[in-house]
Amino acid sequence: MEDGSWIARGIELITTEAVLAWVRAAIYLGVGLLLARLVSRTLIRIAGRHLDAQQAMLVRRIGFYLVLVLAVVSALRELGFDLTVLLGAAGILTVAIGFASQTSASNLISGLFLIGERPFAVGDVIRVGDVTGEVLSIDMLSVKLRTFDNLMVRVPNESLVKSQLTNLTRFPIRRLDMQIGVAYREDINRVRETLMDVADREPLCLEEPRPLFIFLEFGDSALKLQFSVWAKRENFLELRNRMHPAVKEAFDRAGIDIPFPQRTLGSLAGEPFPVRVVSAGESGTDGSADAPPVDNTPR
């Protein structure tokens, strides 16, 4: 009977120790999760004063996962796991996953290049291929964009590194280029003065840099010109919507013609084609001009 009681007490002690270990492990995980959130919030407040949004987000994530990993390791030690065995198994698993997911590894390395090079930041508007949108987040595997029609687009980091990328909001000012055609009979100096007057009257156009007037080429039906004005980045779209109607109205007031494509027909000998004006009385019953008789006699 005494041996049975000792065995029962031993089982009870072992059960109690196991329950306490699980409780301590749960406490470590809970406290670790709370500390990870607290540390990430503290880091984002501190880093936000000295770093941009992209770097602050990266620091916050590193701090969060670092504290969380320490909490998980402490919980596993309380449960009696041998960490050396776990590290060895994690190394083998990492190698296997690396061979199985080469695309993910390539995106991960590309993400590190993007973070180091910093061609854009969170909040910038970029264009990649045929996709244009605002950068929502820069992750280790991909970049999330929000298009202007409020769609979320995920672009892999590898695609960003390999393809041409345009940052539309990197610099504080942008240039609006307008391609304009005027008739051959128009005075170029008068056209230039009219365009400069439109730019001077538009409050969104910057005085420096000055507007730019360029003669491009002699086109098929018009003299091709380029008129470029500068605006602040946040006023670019509004200026684009205002400048084209303003130029059209100014040309109408000044009597400057914007021609449409025209063609001139002539014979090889240089003689013009004969043109006959047919009055209503000479036309047939169906409204068409009477055609000359045609000889259909077989030959």
How would you explain this protein's 3D organization?
The chain has three domains: 8-100, Helix Hairpins (Orthogonal Bundle); 119-167, SH3 type barrels (Roll); 173-254, Alpha-Beta Plaits, CATH 3.30.70.100. The strands form two sheets. It has a five-stranded antiparallel sheet. Helix 1 packs antiparallel against helix 2 and helix 6 (188-201) packs across helix 7. The chain is elongated and about 115 Å long. The chain has 299 residues and is an alpha+beta fold. Helix content is 49%, strand content 18%. A hairpin with a 4-residue loop joins strand 7 (212-218) and strand 8. Mean pLDDT is 79; it is low at 293-299.
What would the keywords be for this entry?
cell membrane; membrane; three-stranded antiparallel beta sheet; 3 domains; mechanosensitive monoatomic ion channel activity; Helix Hairpins; five-stranded antiparallel beta sheet; MS_channel_C; SH3 type barrels; 49% helix
